[in-house]
């Protein structure tokens, strides 16, 4: 599995966890917000790979 595929896998796991947490705790819960921020970081990392490749 190459690096982009590994990050895609992490993104999917983080997204599923976020959805589960949102159902359990609601959107305003600190744990849900923290998980959302983690997902954002993964997505940014993934996007940076392709920005670097395009340049």
TrEMBL record:
<dbReference type="InterPro" id="IPR037208">
    <property type="entry name" value="Spo0E-like_sf"/>
</dbReference>
<protein>
    <recommendedName>
        <fullName>Aspartyl-phosphate phosphatase Spo0E family protein</fullName>
    </recommendedName>
</protein>
<dbReference type="InterPro" id="IPR018540">
    <property type="entry name" value="Spo0E-like"/>
</dbReference>
<dbReference type="InterPro" id="IPR036638">
    <property type="entry name" value="HLH_DNA-bd_sf"/>
</dbReference>
<dbReference type="Pfam" id="PF09388">
    <property type="entry name" value="SpoOE-like"/>
</dbReference>
């Amino acid at each position: 599995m190459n690096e982009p595929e590994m990050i895609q896998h992490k993104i999917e796991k983080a997204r599923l966890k976020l959805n589960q947490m949102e159902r359990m705790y609601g959107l305003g819960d600190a744990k849900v917000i923290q998980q959302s921020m983690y997902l954002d970081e993964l997505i940014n990392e993934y996007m940076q790979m392709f920005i670097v490749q395009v340049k």
